[in-house]
Design brief:
The structure is a homodimer. Chain A has 13 helices and 12 strands. Chain A is an alpha/beta fold. The first copy, chain A, binds a DNA duplex through α2 and α4.
Chain lengths: 334, 334
DNA sequence: ACTGTTACCGATACCGGTATCGATACCATC
DNA sequence: GATGGTATCGATACCGGTATCGGTAACAGT
């Protein structure tokens, strides 16, 4: 009652294992009649090939390992969908792992993934600890680091500069005439990219002799509810802000909802600014300012790169793919 | 420059391959000194085991294949996160695939997944075509079908009755005094569970001698933007509705935003009802009615089940796990 | 009739691990 | 000193495929 093996299919078809293998793979050295016999036998036994054996034997898995930090907002699922779409039809398969923004867990997951001998690996960010980076390096497969560009990649790099994204947003908001800034973030110790955006933002503020008038941070991960709560708190103590920069759109959306409930006109009194350009942010009854991160595009690019990197000579491929997020929803730019 | 094999580690440590294998796995038949030598050698060569070989040899992969239809809203990512969390520390690894609500693609993906000889497989829904169901059956591994309960499971079943969820929502809305219902959905031909909710909802309406006064459907997949657009259209031709049932919370949220922009008071004039109980829906400045689907819980249950099913005798395990979504946001029930 | 091609197929050796069984050394026991 | 038990290790045979090379048959050319 076990699953049939190639050997059994071959026996059923009255040929050798090797011939059966060739027939099923559509190799050329098989006569039409033999091929038909084998295909037929495989059909009868409802044979499903064993990729463990295939991969062990052929020394290539066509697996692409993907490690992302989170699945709790829509950003990384969209990246995964992009990767998955780019891989479709190539015979390659993505395998996902979630690190929960935990470097130790990330290390363990990457190690685990590598033991499956993937043909390429896609990891989020550039800030892996040295030990992890070394492990990636010695894996002898294409390593594609995504989302972030601020740092030194192991190999390939697809993403955007979050420092620059923060700077650009700050410049846009200053150009829109805002002066009294608040910042609301969450889990910045773990979401390093959000931290980089904040640093970039602050840098530009300082250049104009400004800074954050008020800050609120929480160790929990970002969510609409958290953004709403922190915003209410902040506005209670600092009602004279004219702009709040959030760690991302989820938090910003919460901020907008808080303003709506408090009856504070946005963007007139307070301009809400986030990051990501989520569909949600686009559909909101009141637009918020945001930087559209090309998440899907990053995923697709990374997936395409994985395809190419396993077939093409690595040296001939572009190493860095840089995207610049478009800023939308800043009133006077519209 | 290839990756070192167990053989090489053994040579480095001056023992046989078999002894090295035992030492690395922490088996008992190895002296402390030998074990140390092997561990040391493995460390020096930065050896990473080859799970292909391990799994092929030991005949168990500890892989859990997971097939979901979509990654474009937060629902399935949350399910995946639940599965992933439940598997953590068990030595089992989840492998995800996305079917895009396409039965043919689903069949291909499942076939592909099965070729990796997973220890268990989790698929979404109960409505796989016969061919697919047969393939699952003959895989001789635990099959866990999630999300839906309305149908005949192959093996294990974790989810909720969407028909009943639709009925319950209809009853709640009727009890709240609503009478003129609209329905707005999307891609019902593909998202069968949304269709089942609609059917259940309509069944209850009919029992009260009612029905949908107006319907809007689109072949595109659900999104906030689509919900917003369809709602605007519907309210233009049928402004006298007092309740709109949506295929899910994304669509409903779009509906709410449309009402806000049109200045229609909700829930006073129009009660917006969705499905899922997304965090978003909870945080909205105006609450919408929704059924909280236990997505994370379904994922965790399925993951836990996968763990147990591979170690425990299948016959001794509960086959069906039924969840009943809680309805929130219906005014007079609060 | 003999040789050379071509088309097709099978035997064998892997891929990198683990299961299993047997071998060896050492010690205690009678 | 012979016997038996225990601890430790290695040889061998797989797991289920594929790569590689060699063999056979059929046919064409001379």
């Amino acid at each position: 009652m076990r699953k049939p093996t190639l050997e059994e299919v071959a026996a059923e078809a009255g040929v050798s294992k090797m011939t059966a293998s060739r027939a099923l793979r559509g190799a050329s050295d098989v006569s039409k009649e033999t091929r038909a016999k084998v295909l037929n036998a495989a059909e009868r036994l409802s044979y499903v090939g064993n990729r463990l054996a295939l991969s062990l034997s052929s020394q290539r898995t066509n697996l692409v390992a993907v490690v992302v930090p989170s699945m709790s907002n829509i950003v990384f699922p969209e990246v995964l969908a992009g990767i998955s779409a780019a891989l479709e039809g190539s015979g390659m398969q993505a395998v996902f792992g979630i690190s929960d923004y935990d470097p130790a867990k990330e290390h363990a997951i990457i190690r685990d993934m590598l033991s499956w001998q993937p043909s390429a690996i896609i990891v989020t960010g550039l800030d892996q600890p040295g030990e992890t980076a070394r492990m990636l390096q010695s894996a002898a497969i294409p390593v594609i680091q995504i989302m972030d560009l601020d740092g030194t990649p192991v190999d390939f790099n697809v993403g955007l500069s979050h420092g620059r994204a923060g700077e650009d947003m700050a410049r846009a908001l200053l150009a829109a005439g805002r002066k009294r800034f608040g910042y609301i973030g969450s889990a910045l110790d773990r979401d390093l990219r959000a931290g980089k955006r904040k640093v970039g933002f602050e840098r530009v503020l300082r250049e104009s002799g400004l800074g954050f008038v008020e800050q609120q941070q929480d160790s929990a991960f970002s969510s609409i509810a958290l953004g709403k709560r922190l915003t209410s708190t902040m506005l209670a103590t600092a009602p004279d802000l004219d702009c709040i920069y959030y760690s991302n759109d989820d938090m910003a959306t919460g901020g907008l909802f808080a303003c709506m409930e408090l009856g504070i006109p946005t963007p007139e009194n307070i301009l809400i600014a986030g990051f990501n350009g989520l569909d949600l942010a686009q559909a909101l009854p009141v637009r918020i300012a945001t930087s559209r991160s090309p998440r899907r595009m990053i995923g697709e690019t990374a997936g395409k790169l994985a395809r190419e990197a396993v077939t093409t000579e690595a040296a001939s491929l572009q190493k860095v793919f840089s995207f610049i997020p478009e800023i939308t929803g800043v009133p006077h730019l519209q």
